[in-house]
Amino acid sequence: MRKSFQGLLALVQHVFRDQDPYSGDLFVFVNRKGNYVKILAWDRTGFSLFAKKLERGRFFFPADERSQELSDQALRFLLDGIPLGKRR
């Protein structure tokens, strides 16, 4: 989770080649421990980077998904620490 704006942008462009980082979509990254999340977003004038670190617990994603599309509600659940699927 050492990457900042340029590193995360390069990751989005390399891994998600079919996605446009300038589309307004949010790109969510979670560290290996699952206790830190970064969100990269384009807002028409530049990129914003949001981060959240949990003091206890972790963020939950389905174990078999490397990337997935999240609804607004699923993103809120993720940021609140509510599991989105089976726990790892």
What does this structure look like?
Helices cover 23% and strands 22% of the residues. The protein has two helices and three strands; from the N terminus they run H-E-E-E-H. Strands 1-2-3 form a three-stranded antiparallel beta sheet, with helices on one face. The longest helix is centred in the first third of the chain and has 11 residues, at 5-15.
Compact summary:
The protein is 23% helix and 22% strand.
Which terms summarize this structure?
alpha+beta, three-stranded antiparallel sheet, 22% strand, globular
Topology:
Elements: H1 5-15, E1 26-30, E2 36-42, E3 47-53, H2 72-80
Antiparallel strand pairs: 1-2, 2-3
Beta-strand proportion:
15-25%
Strands across the major sheet, in which order? 1-2-3
Q: Quick one: biggest sheet?
A: 3 strands, antiparallel
Give the terminus-to-terminus CA distance: 20 Å
What is the count of structural domains?
Answer: 1
Oligomer: single chain
Overall, the morphology is: globular
Rg computed from alpha carbons, rounded to a whole number of angstroms: 13 Å
Q: SSE string, helix = H, strand = E?
A: HEEEH
